[in-house]
Design brief:
The termini are far apart. This protein folds into 3 domains: 82 residues, no CATH class; 79 residues, 2-Layer Sandwich (Dna Ligase, domain 1), CATH 3.30.1490.20; 202 residues, D-amino Acid Aminotransferase, Chain A, domain 1 (2-Layer Sandwich). 32% of the residues lie in helices and 26% in strands. The longest helix has 22 residues. Strands 13-12-9-10-11-14-17-16 form an 8-stranded antiparallel β-sheet. Strands 5-8-6-7 form a 4-stranded antiparallel β-sheet, with helices on both faces. The protein is built from 13 helices and 18 strands. The chain is α+β, with helices and mostly antiparallel strands. Strand 2, helix 2 and strand 3 form a beta-alpha-beta unit. It comes from Miniphocaeibacter halophilus. This is ATP-grasp domain-containing protein.
Length: 383
């Protein structure tokens, strides 16, 4: 079953729901999106009845968490959500695995009272409950700290309007900076608590100060290199969490062979329907495999694949946008590899212009650098 909510439902997901006829919770989002298409809409009572017989459902957005917590009477489910969504609780639950890892919680109103001279730079400041790099700051010195506090005070009202408290709130966590290469993992814990990985995405940055979501990519070489190690590590982490029948999107870093988690996101895979990249790269939908209890046969999946990278390019905004500005999507997507799909977003009311999925030769380092460094605000033009 599915629960659909903003900010974005992809055409690929819509097509899957029409073809599969899997139950979809009837809410404003699902009704408005499928006005002219036939899908299997079920009301709240029907949804809960089906759930009592089959305990797997998928949310494409963390905006659904409020409804889930309020309407599904399942203590284990609520516990799993809290363990992953609350970054402080997550750190505390696994701290025996990382006994020397620094982390500290603080309310928005008390941030300015913290004496950062007692802390080791660099460190990360971010919401205790957060999403999509909203409110994430790298703090390398006292100036960074003061600028972050000022920016948070200015933007907190805007976050409250855009996201529910279950997605982003005003309680923060300070934690040590995690060095190393970053990866995102779409996976689920099965009915025995064992890990099933459905995709691994490498997340590249333009230096240590970059905390953006600009570029993710997957492919045969990434899956072959990291699948076994990441599966074993996730099994070990779940020894602390004890979670079953549950999909998640994990973000981690590897430094000198040691894997350290950044965060886990519950009941969903890559946000804004970006988990669809698996369909282009490997030929299957991640949510289909989770809901139908499938495990990829990676030897078969990768057998005939070349060494291309399949990228998710987030066209983020670097500055303000005026109400009459127009974004040139054609020029913005030029020279970014073979375009697989271009997703236009209402950039007046969201923090991005859209997404590009593209296919790039893994040795094409120039294109990868261009993706990371391109300023998409340059493609705005006046009406």
């Amino acid at each position: 079953m599915f629960i659909l909510d903003p900010p974005y439902i992809s055409e690929e997901l819509k097509e899957y729901l029409v073809q599969s006829q899997l139950p979809v919770l009837e809410n404003n989002t699902s009704v408005n999106i499928f006005k002219n298409q036939k899908i299997n809409l079920v009301n709240k009572n029907e949804f809960l009845d089906i759930l009592s017989k089959n305990n797997r459902f998928y949310t494409c957005s963390e905006n659904s968490l409020d409804w889930v917590i309020k309407n599904i009477n399942d203590k284990n489910l609520n516990k799993y959500i809290e363990l992953m969504k609350n970054k402080f609780l997550f750190r505390k639950t696994i701290e025996d695995e990382y006994p020397n890892f620094f982390y500290k919680e603080a309310d928005l109103n008390k941030l300015s009272q913290i004496n950062t001279n007692n802390l080791k730079y660099p460190f990360i400041l971010k919401p205790k409950v957060g999403f999509f790099s909203v409110g994430v700051y790298l703090i390398s010195n006292s100036k960074d700290w003061n600028n972050a506090i000022k920016d948070i005070m200015e933007k907190s009202k805007e976050w409250e309007k855009t996201y529910p408290k279950s997605v982003v709130n005003t309680e923060f966590i300070l934690e040590q900076y995690i060095y190393g290469e970053e990866f995102a993992i779409d996976a689920y814990f099965d009915e025995n608590g064992k890990t099933v990985i459905l995709n691994i995405l490498k997340h590249d940055f333009d230096g240590i100060s970059d905390v953006s979501d600009r570029l993710y990519f997957t492919g045969k070489s990434i899956m072959e290199k990291y699948l076994t190690d990441f599966t074993n590590w996730l099994n070990k982490i779940n020894g602390y969490l004890n979670i079953k029948n549950f999909p998640f999107h994990a973000e981690i870093r590897i430094n000198e062979g040691k894997i350290t988690p950044i965060e886990f996101n519950p009941l969903r895979f890559a946000g804004w329907s970006c988990t669809d990249i698996s369909y282009y790269a490997f030929g299957f939908h991640t949510f289909d495999y989770y809901l139908n209890k499938k495990t990829p046969n990676w030897n078969e999946v990768l057998k005939d694949k070349d060494n291309s990278y399949y990228t998710i390019i987030v066209m983020d905004k670097s500055g303000k946008v005026n109400p009459k500005d127009i974004f040139d999507y054609e020029k913005a997507s030029k020279d970014l590899g073979t375009i697989l799909t271009l997703r236009k977003i209402d950039f007046y009311n969201n923090p991005i212009f859209g997404f590009i999925f593209s296919k790039i030769n893994k040795d094409d380092k120039n294109t990868m650098k261009e993706i990371i460094r391109r300023d998409f605000n340059e493609y705005l033009k006046k009406a």
